[in-house]
Amino acid sequence: MKNVFIDLGAYRGLYIRRFRKSTFYRPGCEMFAFECNPHVRTDYGVGVTTIRKAAWISDGELAFYVSKKSPHAVQGSSVYKEKRTGNLDTNHPVKAKCIDFSKWLKDNFQPEDNIILKCNIEGAEYDILEKMIADGTITYIKETWIQWHWQRCGIPEERHRNLVRKLNEYAIKQHRGYGDLK
Fold it and tell me: Which domain holds residue 35?
């Protein structure tokens, strides 16, 4: 059994650093950082495998929207053109390579592995988690830290509530914020 920490939307690695100092960290833990924003420096330190692709529901390429003022903006870039925060430049998206996250999980891990998933991907969490539920890879995840963005991305509240309800049906420990990683 592997101990694994996966950071979707790793940005500058704040939660990777917090995870390393937390009680959740285990020596020998494999760590993966997904960050597709080409403007973000991704030096996450020793022991972290960086994947410069967007976690998504398929392999390929997609439009990725970054801030008009600063591509490094904290408000978060997104694959959702409809995202209302972050002052996104919706007229000039950058192209980002994407990876089928469910397939990547299946290809690299087993359901019995202890996988912790941190997810702050500005709306894409809905598509990815819904696909994981549909194809069964959600059972690979033992704990989550998810930053929900339904209100910022025009995602209907009913879709949000249905996804949270479905996640609650699995034996996944869900953390409601990042407080435990401080």
Answer: 3-56+102-181
